């Protein structure tokens, strides 16, 4: 079998049913160089080697989350085109044209599922869900897992195939969410914050109801406040849990976890006086915070070592969590099976045996008083 060691060394590969050692490869490669046209076996072997090395490179990229410094730094998303209502961007909003590739486990992808539901775009935008387990080749499609689907658009087995279809030399990460254009057969965007903005503003002609078309998660008068919230909530909380969990040295962990709980204290204080982060109105800042908070006690406390406090220990955040969970679009897109199994089962650098912890039992459906408390 193929064995990949650090440094991308291919030790042996299966070629034409037989295992070829590196030494055999070396001689095959020599043959290719000296008699390039004649030795077809050697040529095929070279192609196989190149393919293996490319895959090994991608696998290595998936397995290493932290930098040499021990810090986790999220890479920028690669596809940044926009769908617009008028089509001026080259991607016109149309019903049935766009498709979302998501994971129920992923907090970034979860933002887009909530946006789609809140805006009533279920008939306009289709979606597929990957398996919760992310192995060496990244996200895969495996309809045997409850809630997961096949790739109904391209028929691929792995998300990476979609990225390689876009660019065979693609060197970035094979992330979800992805907004895909079924007409131009291309990825439009793979940055969740931008996809959420598009769903919010560009598809209003296709929302199920006028009320949903009128929902604005990024309203003009609140934009400065929402931007200011996102500016510290993203690094300290949304990405903060990953910075803590993927740290491979004590110092970056300490920094991340301190920042995280200082930011949660700040959220707790804000929510003492307001139903939502920016006031009476639900905004994208709430959607973005929810997808981290709802995973917090189930996964981040234990798996990512964010255990100074739990969300249920913050009275205002806990009430806010239940308020959001019980709002149409939030609880129904939250899948704890995928959330719990993905992180603990896939991150073997953190949890080598992939054992999925049993708890905790948390009831997000219990009553809260935030609607009456903040009714004006
Ligand atoms: N900036 C991206 C981040 C998306 C992201 O990192 N998604 C993770 C899942 S939670 C992923 O697909 N990771 C696969 C990988 O890094 O190989 C966004 O917000 O859309």
Automatic annotation (TrEMBL):
Family matches, as PANTHER family: GLUTATHIONE S-TRANSFERASE OMEGA-LIKE 1-RELATED, GLUTATHIONYL-HYDROQUINONE REDUCTASE
Binding-site residues for glutathione, renumbered to this chain: 139, 173-176, 191-192
InterPro entries: Glutathione-S-Trfase_C-like (IPR010987), Glutathione-S-Trfase_C_sf (IPR036282), Glutathione_S-Trfase (IPR040079), Glutathione_S-Trfase_N (IPR004045), GST_Omega-like_C (IPR047047), GST_Omega/GSH (IPR016639), Thioredoxin-like_sf (IPR036249)
Name of this protein: Glutathionyl-hydroquinone reductase YqjG
GO cellular component: cytoplasm
The organism of origin for this protein: Geodia barretti
PROSITE patterns documented for this protein: GST_CTER
Site description Lowers pKa of active site Cys, residues in chain: 300, 343
One of the Pfam families matching this protein, by short name: GST_C_2
Residue span(s) of domain GST C-terminal: 219-346
Catalytic residue positions: 106, 242
GO molecular function list: glutathione transferase activity
Source domain of life: Eukaryota
